[in-house]
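Regression check, adenosine-5'-triphosphate case 195:
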Amino acid sequence: MVKVGITGGIGSGKSTACKVFSFLGIPVFEADIVAKQIMNTDPEIRAQLINLFGTSVYLPDRTINRKYLAGIVFNNPSLLAKLNQIVHPEVHKSFNEWCQNQHAPYVLYEAAILFESGFYKTLDKTIAVVTNEDERIERVMKRDKTTKEMVKQRINNQLSDEEKIKLADFVISNNDNELIIPQIVELDKKIIANG
Ligand code: ATP
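Current build output:
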């Protein structure tokens, strides 16, 4: 099974690109969603997170308090690393199990921090979705009803597009004046041919 990672900064359109791959029949593993599910449901992970961050890391309904967690780890790289050390191995285990049940020429692993986490090294190929900063800011402000400053802060905390392009095998450009469907159809053919 060929495993392809797909990533992109906030608002780049990686989820949108993954929807197109899905339409083409390619299974997509959404690592960030699975991470959230694991934090919400795995009792061992819950215990470790409470041990590290305190009981406020969970809301009264027992779901993870993402805002609280983000507030703590945002400017604390060492706590962020500890959080990732707890959650990432479980996400990776879940991905490998999930792969066993897929029947497609290749699968996609979608994650916001594919390169930062180092997980890309275990995959066969990688795709970076890139969009210029002004468009990303505008799209996220509209989608999340948030401010320009908040989006900029998130962008500054992520690997730059230039660095992602250097590390990726393939690039999808998702600016307003570019069409992603033809790029993805082309890429799909290429991955299948080389897989
Ligand atoms: P995040 O990392 O924040 O989850 P993402 O990279 O997955 O973001 P999307 O959610 O796919 O990005 O896209 C961000 C927003 O921009 C969405 O509201 C989406 O509908 C919109 N969008 C994506 N691509 C385009 C496009 N080419 N033109 C206009 N809007 C777009």
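Comparison notes: The chain has a mean pLDDT of 95. Residues 2-27+102-194 form a domain with the Rossmann fold fold (CATH 3.40.50.300). No diff flagged against the previous build.
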